[in-house]
C-alpha cells in the first residue's frame, strides 16, 4: 500500500478545511511533545505518551507529527505489531495531511506488512517519508544473513531507508510500546546481542516515541528495559477517570446475558483457544451465527430493554445472521406495535459464485447510504459484520451488542470503543453511560476469553496463563497413572502415594511471539521430590552457560529442541520424563531465566501431606467394606481437601484407594508388592516400529490434528485419514519416538514415501534447490491450496509455505493471479525457476484454467 500525496493539489482541493478540534488533554500532550522533541540538536531522545483506550493516542501523535515533524523534512517510521494498528495509523495520517505546513509540497506514504494488501518489504524506497510497518517485518529485514549474487552481505530495502534517514533525521513511533522489552523489538530499537546496532545507533540523533495505555511491568527486568529504551520517561499521562470526569469518555456499563447455549470443548478446541491463543474456529462461529434460538434470545433482549438501550450497534459474525436478526426485530416489533427502524451493513459473504446469496451481497454504495442514515438518527439499530469495529465514527451510540465471546482483546476493545464517546466528544447531550451487552454461552471448560478492563480482564502487560495449572496437571497425571495401573491387569500402586504428588512447581513468565504480535505467558513446571535436586542443578548450570540469544521471543524451535535433548541427557534420569514433557519444562525454565536473568519462583505444595492416600489406606486396611466406603465418601466430599480436584469422580478416587490398599496389604503380608512396572518409561526394541495408541494421540494433539505437509484439517462432513509418520524412516535407523514423528494425511504420507522430510521445520535444510519439481496428483477431493502446498513443501523438503492466496470466485483479486508466501529463509527463486510447470499443474491438473500467473515471495 503506497501513496504519493501532492500536498499543493490537496490544499487547492480543500481551500477551507475543517480540522478536528483536539481536547485539552491532547493539547497538553502537544505541548509536552514539543518540549522534548525540539529538533534543535542531534541528541537522541525517547519517551512514552500514556493515554487510555479511547483517548486518541493515534490522532494525538499523528496530528503533532504532521505539524512538527514533517515540516522539518524528517522521516517517520511507525512501528506496530498488528495490521489493524498499521491501517489505523495510515488512515489517520491521510486525514491529517492538511495540517502539514505549506513548505512541504508532497508526502510519500507506505504501509508494509506480510498482508498481500500491503506493500512488500522489498518495495520500501529511500524516498518514503512515512513508513508504516509491522515490528516483526522490520526485525526480519534488519541485519539479515542473506548474500547477494557476489557473495556479499545483502542490504535490505528497510536498511537502505534507515541509512538515508541519517541525512534527514528520523522520528520513530512504537505503538503498543509495552512490547518494547521483547528481545527482537528491543534489539531493533537499541541494539544488543541479536543486532550489533539498533536504530538508535544506526541513525544518531533519532527520536523515539512510545504509545501505550499501561507503561508498567511486574517483572523488574522488563520494566528496566522499558526505561532504558525510553530514557526520557513518560512525556505525558492521562488517567481514564479524568477523561470520564470531563465527559470525553462515557462510563461503561457492562451487562452480561446468558444465552443458555451449552458448548462442548474437546482437547483440540481447548488447545486452539488456550495454548495457541487463536479465536474460535470458523465452523463454530458459523454454528453460533445460524442458531435461531440464540438469535431469538438476542432479539427479545433488545425489545425488552429498548428504552434503556437507545441507539444500538449489534456486532454479528455472518451476513445471514444480520439478515435473520433484522427480519426478526422488525417482525417482533410489528407484532408488539413498536415503531422500529433497523438495517444492516455487511460486505464479507461466504456464499459461492452464482448463488442467490452472492447476488444479494451488499455493495459499497448501499452500505454508505445505510451508515449515513444511522449517523443521522434515521435508524434505531444497525447490524454489521466486522465493519464498525475499526474506526467508523458514529459518536452518539448508546449501546453495543457483542453477540459472542472472543479471545481477541484487540477485537473486543474495538467493539466496546464504538459506544464510549462521552457527551463532550459528540456522544449526545445526555450521554453519560455506555451500555456494553455481552451474550455469553455455557462452555464445558473454562476458556480465557477476553474481558473488559476492570471486569476481571487482564491488563495489557499482565501475563496470560498457558497450559495446565498445577492442580489440574496433578489431576491429569494421577488419572493417567490410574489408567496404567488398570491396564496392567493388577490394581496395585508400585510406590507410596506421596511419591505421585509433586513437592511444588516453578512459575515461569516468557515473552513469546504470536500471530498477533508478542505476549507474555505464564506457565508452570511441576516438580517431583526425586527430580527436585536435578532441577536445582540444572538451574545453577543456566546461570553461567545460557547464551544471550535465548532471550529471543522468536527463538528457533529446532535449536531449542536439540538443546533440551542435551540437557535431559546431562542432568536428568529417564524416570523424570514419564509424561514426555520434560523437554518443554526445561525450555520454559531456560527462556524465563534468559529473559528475567533470575531463577523463576518456586512454590511448595503445602497441602501435600494432607493428601497421603497411603496413610489413609493403611489406617483402613482392617476395616470392612461398609466402613471403608463411608469413610472414603466423607473424605472425597470434604471441601477442605483436593480429592475432587484430583479425581473428577468418586469411582476414580475409590480405585486409586484400592490400588494403595492392595500395595500395603502385600507389603505387610509378603514384604513386597507385585512388580507391575506401571511407571517405567516405554522401552522399545529395534523391532517395535509403531508408537502406542496413547502416544499417537499425543502426536495428533501436538500437531493440532493437521497434516504438517498440506495443512489439511478435520472439518464437519469431511473424512480425513491421518497417519503418524516417521520423519526419518524406521528402515534407515529412525527411532520410534514422539520427536521423530509427525502428523500427515494419507495422501501426503504416500507421497513422502521413504524420504526423510521434517514438515515441522519452516526452513529448508537443502543447500541447493532440487533439480525437478515433483508433481503427482494423488487425490481429486482436496482444496486447491492443499494440493499446491503439498507440491511446494515436498520441493523444499520442509513446511516452507506460510500462506497461499487463491480464489476462484468471480470478484476475487486472486481469481487470475495466485500468490504463495514462504516462511523466511526459503529462497523464492528456487520455485520460480519451475513456474511454467507450476502453472501447467494449476491450469491442467487442478482444472483452474483462468489462473494466468503465480507470485512467489
Please render the helix and strand layout as text:
Blueprint: E1 2-6, H1 7-13, H2 24-36, E2 45-50, H3 57-68, E3 75-80, H4 83-96, E4 106-112, E5 130-134, H5 135-140, H6 157-168, E6 170-175, H7 183-190, H8 199-202, E7 207-212, H9 220-229, E8 234-237, H10 240-245, E9 251-263, H11 267-275, H12 282-290, H13 292-304, H14 306-309, E10 312-316, H15 319-335, E11 342-345, H16 356-359, H17 364-375, E12 381-385, E13 399-402, H18 409-417, E14 433-443, E15 464-465, H19 470-487, E16 504-514, E17 517-527, H20 532-545, H21 557-571, H22 582-596, E18 602-604, H23 613-619, H24 625-636, H25 643-646, H26 650-670, H27 693-702, E19 722-726, E20 741-745, H28 746-752, H29 784-796, E21 801-805, E22 817-822, H30 828-832, H31 835-845, E23 853-856
Parallel strand pairs: 2-7, 2-8, 3-5, 3-6, 4-5, 6-7, 9-14, 10-12, 10-13, 11-12, 13-14, 15-17, 22-23
Antiparallel strand pairs: 1-4, 16-17, 16-18, 19-20, 21-22
Helix pairs in contact: 2-3, 3-4, 13-15, 21-22, 23-26
Summarize the structure.
By secondary structure, the protein is α/β, with parallel strands linked by helices. The chain is 37% helix and 16% strand. The protein folds into three domains: 2-238, 3-Layer(aba) Sandwich (Rossmann fold), CATH 3.40.50; 251-462, P-loop containing nucleotide triphosphate hydrolases (Rossmann fold), CATH 3.40.50.300; 470-667, no CATH class.
Structure, explained:
With 857 residues, the protein is α/β, with parallel strands linked by helices. Helix content is 37%, strand content 16%. The protein has 31 helices and 23 strands. It has an 8-stranded mixed β-sheet with strand order 1-4-5-3-6-7-2-8. Strands 9-14-13-10-12-11 form a 6-stranded parallel β-sheet, with helices on both faces. The chain has a 4-stranded mixed β-sheet with strand order 15-17-16-18. A hairpin with a 2-residue loop joins β16 and β17 (517-527). The two termini are 16 Å apart. Residues 348-360, 454-461 and 677-687 have low confidence and may be disordered.
Amino acid at each position: 500500500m503506497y501513496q504519493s500525496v501532492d500536498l499543493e493539489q490537496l490544499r487547492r482541493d480543500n481551500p477551507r478545511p475543517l480540522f478536528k478540534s483536539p481536547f485539552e488533554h491532547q493539547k497538553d500532550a502537544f505541548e509536552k511533545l514539543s518540549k522534548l522533541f525540539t529538533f534543535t540538536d542531534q541528541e537522541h531522545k525517547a519517551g512514552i505518551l500514556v493515554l487510555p483506550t479511547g483517548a486518541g493516542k493515534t490522532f494525538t501523535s499523528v496530528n503533532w507529527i504532521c505539524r512538527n515533524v514533517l515540516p522539518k523534512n524528517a522521516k517517520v517510521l511507525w512501528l506496530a505489531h498488528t495490521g489493524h494498528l498499521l491501517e489505523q495509523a495510515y488512515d489517520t495520517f491521510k486525514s491529517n495531511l492538511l495540517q502539514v505546513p505549506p513548505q512541504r509540497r508532497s508526502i510519500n506514504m507506505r504501509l508494509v506488512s506480510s498482508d498481500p494488501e500491503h506493500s512488500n518489504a522489498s518495495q520500501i524506497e529511500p524516498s518514503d517519508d512515512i513508513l508504516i510497518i509491522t515490528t516483526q517485518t522490520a526485525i526480519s529485514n534488519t541485519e539479515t544473513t542473506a548474500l547477494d549474487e557476489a557473495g556479499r552481505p545483502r542490504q535490505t530495502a528497510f536498511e537502505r531507508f534507515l541509512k538515508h534517514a541519517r541525512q534527514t533525521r528520523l522520528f520513530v513511533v512504537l505503538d503498543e510500546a509495552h512490547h518494547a522489552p521483547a528481545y527482537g523489538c528491543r534489539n531493533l530499537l537499541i541494539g544488543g546481542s541479536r543486532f550489533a546496532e539498533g536504530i538508535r545507533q544506526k541513525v544518531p540523533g533519532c527520536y523515539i516515541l512510545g504509545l501505550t495505555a499501561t507503561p508498567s511491568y511486574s517483572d523488574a527486568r522488563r520494566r528496566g528495559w522499558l526505561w532504558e529504551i525510553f530514557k526520557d520517561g513518560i512525556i505525558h499521562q492521562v488517567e481514564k477517570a479524568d477523561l470520564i470526569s470531563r465527559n470525553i469518555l462515557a462510563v461503561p456499563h457492562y451487562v452480561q446475558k446468558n444465552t443458555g447455549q451449552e458448548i462442548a470443548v474437546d482437547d483440540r478446541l481447548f488447545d486452539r483457544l488456550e495454548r495457541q491463543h487463536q479465536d474460535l474456529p470458523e465452523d463454530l462461529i458459523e454454528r453460533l451465527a445460524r442458531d435461531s434460538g440464540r438469535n431469538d434470545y438476542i432479539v427479545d433482549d433488545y425489545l425488552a430493554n429498548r428504552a434503556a438501550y437507545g441507539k444500538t450497534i449489534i456486532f454479528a459474525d455472518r451476513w445471514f445472521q444480520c439478515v435473520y436478526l433484522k427480519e426478526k426485530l422488525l417482525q417482533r416489533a410489528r407484532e408488539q406495535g413498536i415503531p422500529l427502524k433497523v438495517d444492516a451493513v455487511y460486505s464479507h459473504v461466504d456464499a459461492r459464485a452464482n448463488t442467490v446469496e452472492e447476488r444479494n451481497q451488499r455493495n459499497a454504495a448501499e452500505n454508505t447510504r445505510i451508515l449515513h442514515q444511522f449517523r443521522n438518527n434515521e435508524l434505531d439499530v444497525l447490524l454489521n459484520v466486522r465493519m464498525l469495529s475499526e474506526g467508523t465514527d458514529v459518536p452518539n451510540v448508546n449501546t453495543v451488542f457483542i453477540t459472542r465471546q472472543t479471545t481477541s482483546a484487540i477485537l473486543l476493545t474495538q467493539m466496546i470503543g464504538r459506544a464510549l464517546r462521552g457527551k463532550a466528544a459528540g456522544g449526545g447531550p445526555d450521554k453519560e453511560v455506555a451500555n456494553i451487552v455481552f451474550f455469553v454461552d455455557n462452555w464445558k471448560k473454562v476458556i480465557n476469553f477476553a474481558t473488559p478492563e476492570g471486569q476481571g480482564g487482564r491488563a495489557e502487560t499482565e501475563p496470560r496463563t498457558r497450559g495446565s495449572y498445577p492442580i489440574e496437571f496433578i489431576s491429569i497425571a494421577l488419572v493417567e497413572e490410574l489408567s496404567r495401573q488398570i491396564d496392567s491387569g493388577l490394581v496395585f500402586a508400585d510406590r507410596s502415594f506421596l511419591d505421585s504428588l509433586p513437592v511444588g512447581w516453578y512459575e515461569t513468565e516468557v515473552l513469546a511471539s504470536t500471530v498477533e504480535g508478542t505476549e507474555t505467558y505464564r506457565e508452570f513446571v511441576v516438580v517431583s521430590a526425586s527430580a527436585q535436586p536435578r532441577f536445582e542443578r540444572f538451574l545453577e548450570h543456566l546461570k553461567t552457560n545460557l547464551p544471550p540469544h535465548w532471550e529471543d521471543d522468536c527463538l528457533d524451535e529446532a535449536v531449542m529442541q536439540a538443546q533440551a535433548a542435551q540437557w535431559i541427557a546431562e542432568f536428568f534420569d529417564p524416570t523424570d520424563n514419564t509424561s514426555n514433557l520434560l523437554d518443554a519444562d526445561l525450555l520454559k525454565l531456560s527462556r524465563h531465566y534468559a529473559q528475567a536473568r533470575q531463577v523463576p519462583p518456586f512454590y511448595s505444595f503445602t497441602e501435600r501431606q494432607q493428601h497421603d492416600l497411603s496413610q489413609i489406606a493403611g489406617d483402613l486396611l482392617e476395616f470392612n467394606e461398609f466402613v471403608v466406603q463411608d469413610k472414603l465418601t466423607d473424605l472425597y466430599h470434604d471441601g477442605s481437601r483436593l480429592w475432587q480436584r484430583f479425581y473428577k469422580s468418586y469411582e476414580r478416587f475409590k480405585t486409586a484407594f484400592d490400588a494403595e490398599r492392595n500395595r500395603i496389604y502385600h507389603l505387610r503380608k509378603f514384604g513386597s508388592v507385585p512388580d507391575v512396572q506401571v511407571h517405567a518409561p516405554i522401552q522399545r526394541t529395534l523391532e517395535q516400529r509403531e508408537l502406542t495408541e496413547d502416544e499417537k494421540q499425543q502426536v495428533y494433539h501436538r500437531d493440532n490434528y493437521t497434516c504438517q505437509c498440506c495443512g489439511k484439517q478435520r472439518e464437519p462432513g469431511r473424512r480425513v485419514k491421518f497417519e503418524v509418520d516417521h520423519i526419518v524412516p524406521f528402515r534407515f535407523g529412525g527411532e520410534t519416538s514422539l520427536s521423530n514423528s509427525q502428523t500427515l494425511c494419507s495422501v501426503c504420507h504416500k507421497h513422502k514415501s521413504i524420504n526423510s522430510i521434517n514438515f515441522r521445520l519452516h526452513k529448508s535444510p537443502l543447500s541447493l534447490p532440487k533439480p525437478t519439481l515433483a508433481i503427482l496428483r494423488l487425490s481429486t477431493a482436496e482444496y486447491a491450496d492443499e494440493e499446491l502446498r503439498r507440491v511446494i513443501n515436498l520441493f523444499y523438503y520442509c513446511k516452507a509455505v506460510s500462506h497461499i492466496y487463491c480464489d476462484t470466485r468471480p470478484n476475487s483479486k486472486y481469481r487470475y493471479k495466485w500468490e504463495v508466501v514462504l516462511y523466511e529463509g526459503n529462497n523464492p527463486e528456487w520455485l520460480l525457476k519451475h513456474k511454467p510447470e507450476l502453472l501447467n499443474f494449476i491450469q491442467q491438473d487442478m482444472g483452474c484454467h483462468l489462473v494466468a500467473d503465480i507470485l512467489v515471495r
